[in-house]
Write a structure and sequence with these properties.
single chain, about 260 residues, four-stranded antiparallel beta sheet, about 10% strand
Length: about 260
Amino acid sequence: MNDIELINEVQKVILNRCTVRAYDPNPLSQKEIDMIIYGAMRAPTAGNMMFYSILEVKNQEMKAKLVKTCDNQPHIAKAPLVLIFLADMQRWYDYYTISGVPERCANINHSYRTPDESDLLLACCDALIAAQNAVITAESMGIGSCYIGDIIENIEVHREMFNLPKWVFPITMLCFGYPMQDPSKRIIKSRFPKKFIHFTNSYKRFGEEEFFEMFQNFESDPYIEYAENLGQHYYFRKTGSAFAQEMSRSVKVAIRDWIKKE
């Protein structure tokens, strides 16, 4: 992406952003926190219905527990600001109940539908778009961030911790704080070349030589045990890992409960 000519400061913020896991211990000001939340809330949302909620974790014991339930990531406990972005259809269905929608549907012989898989996906999209708005808002103020997708795991524990009802799903968590490292010394990680991501009119699949080119800047880390090449390394480290299996289990539980009819 070095050949991209930056036109404005927004582009500079986006293209220079990287994950930050070591934070200055000083707390963020309430004004800074509010600005991050407001930035998130200005994100695009399906039908302006805002199918998401944002849960701020202030309790230090909860943060410490999240370190363990989210694959032993100690920076969670040290982050000045931790936000969980929730796919949330519960709020709307509570409102529908208060508004007498089920009864009205019965009176006019109209089918009353409760959330299904499509609603979960839509709510997850809303929550993730809001999360990324929060990331860019924070970055524009010099505040670093780190996504924690592992909040999807251990669904039963996280439900109990945060009192989450069936139509609320924790899709991602974000840690925020001023970076310990000098921002001018940050290392921007490689991305795949544009031609492997951006297609026109039709999806493209790749062969061996193209994959070799696509991953040519990713051959730096030592391979994990059992792996004989980079593809196997990524599979055993990510896709086929224990945490991926737990994530799969938790998501199945969440979907089952989400679509279960009372």
